[in-house]
Design goal:
Layout (H helix, E strand, L loop, with lengths): L2 E6 L6 H14 L3 E5 L15 H11 L4 E5 L7 H15 L3 E5 L4 H4 L9 H19 L4 E4 L3 E5 L11 E4 L3 H7 L5 E5 L3 H16 L4 E8 L4 H12 L6 H6 L3 H7 L5 H7 L1 E2 L3 H13 L4 E6 L4 H18 L3
Parallel strand pairs: 1-2, 1-11, 2-3, 3-4, 4-7, 7-8, 8-9, 9-10, 9-11
Antiparallel strand pairs: 5-6
Helix pairs in contact: 1-2, 1-13, 2-3, 3-5, 6-7, 8-11, 12-13
Length: about 325
């Protein structure tokens, strides 16, 4: 049975509130969780930026859920330190953690002042970073001088078995490339035809029967107008084209780039409905595409009501296989 997870958005909520929310989600019937790993939010309206690794230690200690985090193990973060953080979580909490690796966004990765490389170079350093982390998790001493530099690094606390490393992909091209090295794939909700293309590219590129997970962007509230306008208020900076969003460097730049986007524009990119059965139908269609996990991110601020409503109606319907 596919797992239905809760997405904890560090860009929108303080870490203490997210900790209460993920506990509430587990009690409501969500059986997995994931979080983002940002330094900045995408807008002042979102307004938060907690440290995901600190939070993960607390969240994994106080729930029984398997966790994933989407991160760039390059740029502002060195892969040896990311490997150490992951190894520590796995040693404490066991085989219930997945690292989802992406090449990053300038919004976060340029804060150290380093040059922001073009996409092909970002992919190269990401692949090097993943190889470095896997070697460290095997207990090897690593010296590497390429796009990433490592000198005589060795983890003295390392996991008994390496945790899975998924790739974050938003296009068929990235999915096909990731299939050659990743243990699985994470993508985000988009029109079904595009999702099919990404899954097919991953499978045909060497992904075979590796698991694919989906982060679902939705906005639910008991009132349709609230669901629509809150999605626009919180998430219009996040529906820009991928190439644009990867290059902008500050929340203000995102706000300026998204200033022209209307409520209808956001509703074409985010699944917005006050009808719980509509969400059941959308998510059931996702499961029919073969996703092993769905992580639900309600992009508006009404998190408690969302967790309770979906826990009471949507999750039971999906587990029964009824639409």
């Amino acid at each position: 049975m596919a797992r239905i997870g809760f997405h904890a958005s560090h860009e929108q909520f303080p870490p203490s509130e997210l900790l209460a929310l993920v506990r509430r989600a587990e009690a409501a019937g969500f059986d997995a969780a994931m979080c983002s790993d940002h330094f900045h939010p995408w807008s002042a309206a979102q307004g938060q930026g907690g440290h995901s690794w600190s939070w993960l230690g607390a969240a994994m200690a106080t729930t029984t859920l398997p966790f994933s985090v989407v991160t760039a193990p390059v740029g502002r973060q060195h892969p040896a330190l990311v490997a150490q953080a992951v190894a520590t979580l796995v040693e404490m909490h066991g085989d219930c953690f997945t690292l989802v690796a992406g090449s990053g966004e300038a919004l976060n990765e340029t804060i150290t002042g380093e040059r922001w490389p073009p996409k092909d170079q970002r992919n190269q350093r990401l692949l090097e970073a993943v190889d470095i982390m896997r070697a460290l998790w095997r207990g090897e001493e690593v010296t590497h001088r390429g796009a990433v530099i490592v000198e005589h690094a060795r983890l003295y606390t390392h996991p008994q078995s390496p945790p899975p490393v998924f790739a974050a992909a938003l296009s068929p091209e990235t999915a096909a490339w990731a299939a050659t090295w990743a243990d699985g794939l994470m993508t985000v909700s988009m029109p079904e035809a595009k999702l099919r293309d990404i899954i097919a590219a991953f499978r045909d590129g060497g992904g075979g029967d590796k698991p694919v997970h989906l982060q679902v962007k939705l906005s639910w509230a008991a009132d349709e107008t609230v669901a629509r306008h809150e999605a626009h208020a919180q998430w219009r900076t996040n529906v820009l084209e991928g190439e644009v969003s990867q290059e902008l460097r500050t929340p203000r730049q995102f706000e300026d780039a998204a200033r022209h986007l209307t409520v209808d524009d956001v509703c074409r990119a985010v699944r917005v409905s006050a009808d719980l059965q509509q969400h059941v139908d959308w998510l059931a269609a996702d499961l029919e595409l073969g996703f092993a996990r769905l992580y639900l991110h309600n992009v508006n601020r009404g998190q408690e009501a969302f967790v309770d409503a979906f826990g009471g109606t949507v999750l039971p319907a999906l587990h029964r296989g009824t639409r």
